[in-house]
Amino acid sequence: QVQLVESGGGLVQAGGSLRLSCVASGSFFSRSFMGWYRQAPGKQRELVATVTSGGGSTNYADSVKGRFTISRDNAKNTVYLQMNSLKPEDTAVYYCNAKIAGLMREYEYWGQGTQVTVSS
Fold first, then answer.
1. How many CB atoms are located within 10 Å of the residue 109 CB?
2. In terms of Cα–Cα distance, which of 108, 88, 110, 107 is closest to 37?
3. CB atoms closer than 10 angstroms to residue 95
4. Are 97 and 88 contacting, i.e. CB atoms less than 8 angstroms apart?
5. What is the pLDDT of residues 83-95, one digit of tens each?
6. Within the chain, where are the H helices?
């Protein structure tokens, strides 16, 4: 069974930093396309950042470009999201996402989420 467990969320003042981690169980991690999403109260879940299986290519939402960095360590089955210059509008539950290509379909998994609150 694939499991994703996020950690690192918390309360921080505007301008501060947090580093989120997502540890994955199973042997699939090095083949997976990983991403971080977030969902603020009353809003739809939105993509924050993605990274390819080898870590060579990343993609970011315009709202976080230049402030957030996604990275991964396949030896540790872990994906990170370094968040700098945090703003109150970054407040949300942050979710780790894994997409794995199977023979016939793509498999997708989600973590339980970690709360990030940025005070002004």
1. 18
2. 110
3. 21
4. no
5. 999 999 999 999 9
6. none
- Which three-class secondary structure string do you get for 19-45? EEEEEECCCCHHHCEEEEEEECCCCCC
Query: At 83, is the secondary structure helix, strand, or coil?
Result: strand
Q: Is the dihedral of CA 10, 80, 63, 101 positive or negative?
A: negative
Pairing of strands 78-83, 106-110: unpaired
Residues 6 or more apart in contact with residue 41 via CB below 8 angstroms: none
Interatomic CA distance for residues 59 and 49, integer angstroms: 5
Q: Is 29 exposed, middle or buried (0-12, 13-18, 19+ CB in 10 A)?
A: buried
* Tokens 């969320």 -> residue: 9
Residue 2 CB contacts under 8 Å (≥ 6 apart), including other chains: 24, 25, 26, 28, 98, 100, 107, 109
Task: Summarize pLDDT for 22-39 with one digit per residue, the tens.
Answer: 999 988 899 999 999 999
